[in-house]
Each structure stands twice: as C-alpha cells, then as structure tokens.
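pipeline/complex-builder :: batch 7 item 3
reading input block
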Amino acid sequence: MQPIAILAATADPIESRAADLEDFDQMVRLYWPRVFRFAVASLRDRDAAGSIAQDCLVKAYRTRHTFRGDCSVSTWLMQIAVNLLRDYSRNRRMQFWKRAEASALDLSAVSQSIADRDASPEGKALAKEQVEAVWNATEKLPQKQRTVFLLRFVDDMDLLEIASATGLKEGTVKTHLFRATEAIRRRLGGIR
Amino acid sequence: MNGHLSSEQISRWMIGERTDREEEHVRRCSECAAQLAALESAIARFRDSVRDCGEMYGHPNVGLLSRAQSVRPGFLVGRSRWASIAAALLLLAAIPIYTTSRDRRAAEIARADAVLLEQVDAGISRAVPAPMEPLVKLVSWNSGIATTGETR
C-alpha cells in the first residue's frame, strides 16, 4: 500500500524565521493563508475567520520581541490563533443570540468545488458527500479535538508542533487526535 | 494477524500508529486497504476544501491591516502613560509654586490690613478730626488768654 498521502504531505515550504516578523507586510503575505484557513475551518464563518487572522498577525507583530525562537514562527502564530479562537468561542457562547449568519460558510459551494474535480457523476456525488460529512463532523467535535484534528490534517503539523501550539502534552494531543479521528470515521460510516 | 483491522486500529493507523503486522495485513487485505483509503481520501478532500476556502475568501483586507498595524495601541499606551506621568510631575511641581504664591499674597493682604488698621486706629485715637486740629490749637491758645483775663 502506498504511504498515506495525508501523513506524507509536507508542511508549507516556508522557512520560518524570526526575521519574518520584522516586516509586517511580508508576515501577512507568508502567514495569512495558513492562519485564515485554520480559523475558517474552526469557525465556519468567513468574517470571523478574517478577524481572527487579522488579530493574530497584528498581535504577533506587536509582541514579536517576545518570540524566543524555541519553535517556528508558524507554530508560534498558530499558538496565538488557538488562543484567539478559544477566547472567541467563549465569547460567542455567551452571545449566541447575536451570532451572525450572513458570513457563514456556504458548505455546499465549498464541497462542490472539490466534487467538480472528479470526472464521474458518482465520484462527484461521493466527494461532495464526504467533504460535507467531514465538515459537519469537525463542527460537532469538542473544541480541543477539533483544534488538534485541524492542526494535524489541515496544517500538517506533527504532534510536537501541535503540543507547542496548543499548550497540551504530546500524549494528550495524541488522545484528542485519536478521538477526533474516531468521531470522523464513525460519521463517514467506515465502521467495523 | 487474525481478522480485519478494528475501528480503533484504523483510527490509530490514521494518526500514524501502526505495527508491522498491521501493515502486512493491509498489504494483503483489500477490504481493510479500501477502508483506509476511503478515510484518507475523505480527509484529504476535506483538507483540499479548507485550502480552497482560504483561497476563495482568505484575502487580507490590506487597508484594515495597515490601520490595525499603525494604531499600535501598545505604543499609544506607552506614550499616554508617559504623558500622564509628565502631567502628574507638573502637577506636583505646581503645588509648591501655587502654595508659595498663595502664602505671599496672604502675607501682602495681612500687611495691607495691618496698615489700614493702624490708619484706622490713628484716626480713632485723634481727639478731634484732622481738619479741626489747627482750630483746637487756636482754642487752646485763646483759652490760655481767657484764663489770664480771669485771673486779672
């Protein structure tokens, strides 16, 4: 069997350097996509994800002197993003009635763009169904499991990097990742 | 290895935990291989969809970011803090100056009051008003003559 594509995928070819933090425009150019996609996968809200990405980069720039270099810049940024998302989710729970729906992610459009890559109608349907199922399953995961799952399978971070970004122990990260994967697998119906 | 991979083994496989025996089994078992491939494919498609989302919607609002960067509240807090400290020092420095000038004015008023009081006291102490003083002298001299006349 071929090595698992997901696990074999390499991280972004970004040389994470402290010098990246000195030039704000450069920082935005390099790291915005990564922070944004993590935020949008966590929140399923474009505007909120944009705000989180913006706050993350501005905060990182302002506090760049505190970056000690004991992890990569991208891991440090994800650490800031994880904290911002946690605060955001906490506030949103308090104000759930104010939840804006206008900028909610159109899951159908998102899954359709993936389905369109498949040639056969059956393949398109399956792809759409799978993508929607995983999006819905991740939304229902507890926050820590969702964070760990996204960092692993969307951002291709390894367990140590995830531990550094989340402040969790490596063993705890592994446990959350296992539970999240179980939940996703059950949702997809691949049960034995 | 007997039977197929359990659900736990499949999930562990997905997070990178697998034994040589499990790998050997998956190489020979098309059913387990298909299950793993389906799960990997679903997660890979999900990842692609998240990345597509980033490309579709994830363009930073450069103007907003520049403003956010230029505001730099930390810097402002620092400056306003220094301004507050300077204002407090000025206030502290102004208090003795104010106190001294107030004391000086009070002393001047007291001196003026004392002079006035002396003038008033002098005025009250006169036997006759100041304009009548020459007359009093004259009367004193006339009374001296009168006295002389009487004795005469």
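note: DSSP finds nine helices and no strands in chain A.
queue -> next item
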